[in-house]
Amino acid sequence: MSKIFVDACFRKETPYTPVWMMRQAGRYLPEYMEVRGQAGSFLNLCHNPEKACEVTIQPLDIVGVDAAILFSDILVIPDEMGMDLEFIKGQGPVFHDPIETQEDVDRLICGEEAANKLTYVYETIKLLKEKLPEDKALIGFTGAPWTLATYMIEGQGTKTYNLCKKMMYSNPELLHNILRKVTDIVKLYLEKQIQAGADVVQIFDSWAAAIEPGRYDEFSWKYMVEIAEYIKEKYPHIPVIMFPKGISAFINMDGVYGNFDVLGIDWGTPMAMAKAKLGDKYVLQGNMEPCRLYSKEETTKCVEKIQETMQGEGHIFNLGHGILPDVPVENAIHFVKECQRVSKKS
User: Fold this and answer.
1) Which spans of this chain does the record mark as coiled coil (predicted)?
2) Phi, psi of 280 (to 5 degrees)
3) CA distance 219 to 246
């Protein structure tokens, strides 16, 4: 049975434009909070294939999206590289041993050894393939090397990125050494997700906007392109989605290139501009401002505007970033139904 989401990634004819939401398995769903409470902690939930499988499927049953995205976290990679990760309530993820020197890089577990430690992720995917409806696609994912490196160097989330950007300008060789190690693991990690059953993979560069546009290719995009090329060469039937957040200036500079299928457009990038620059080369995904979900009326307006721009061709509906925890579930359902309504082919 064909999957509408996979078909859309390859620009095949679909009965309507498919839709899913970043962070669709998450805190806005009471059912998710119940399972997370049972797990005891966020990391425990990531490490428990049965429970991770359950929360991955919830948005399909409750909200009606067209694809499931694996429930996990981008930071499981540096965690399994041997870094000391803790999720602290009210603070978020913290690495107690951030990378400062080449010696710190040398102590990291790398390559196949690190990728093989992520068995709970692959087990979750295998369980999902048994339980997901045949017409629903499963999206695997990873953080981009730059986004992962920012956490590994800063030790936690940051608004200034001063430690990793200090390294970028004063010791670029060290930063490239970190990015190289992470890139090599990410390639294997995505490959193992595909081997376990993922139908699509997405690379999230959440902190892309922290890099000035003239340096973005050197310190992020080229590594993402290398990963995509590795996957497409070995698995041409698997769509690859790139989502670099906040790079409208980079798009304007004609900086986007590479062998992948879908480009995620953040809410700060005009969809019409992205379509004019890249719509003939890549399927575009996005890009409603997530806060519009607080208003059904504003959601409908935005969905209609995006449909008017994209005309149901070379497009996947999504938010321009993740759904927020206090969004009413009924509003998320409204978004999905509206996307399907405005794009339905007669």
Assistant:
1) none
2) -85, -10
3) 15
The tally of domains found in the chain comes to: 1
**How far is C-alpha 100 from the geometric centre of its chain's CA atoms?**
27
By three-state DSSP, how is residue 110 classified?
Answer: coil
Domain that holds residue 151: 4-343
pLDDT tens digits for 96-105?
999 999 999 9
Q: Which residues are catalytic?
A: 23, 27, 36, 73, 151
Cα dihedral value 296, 342, 247, 203, nearest 10: 100
pLDDT for the residue 2: 87
* CATH code where residue 296 lies: 3.20.20.210
**For 172, how many CA atoms within 13 A lie in the half-sphere containing its CB?**
5
Query: Which is more confidently placed, 90 or 148?
Result: 148
**DSSP summary character for residue 219:** I
Residue length of the chain: 346
With 0.85 as the threshold, say if the pTM is over it.
Answer: yes
What's phi and psi for 336, nearest 5 deg?
-60, -45
Token representation of residue 170:
């004063």
Annotated binding site: 23-27, 73, 151, 206, 321
What's the CA gap between 308 and 299, in Å, rounded? 14
Eight-class DSSP state of 220:
I
What is the pLDDT confidence band of residue 65, given thresholds at 50, 70 and 90?
very high
* CA separation for the pair 182, 81 (Å, rounded): 9
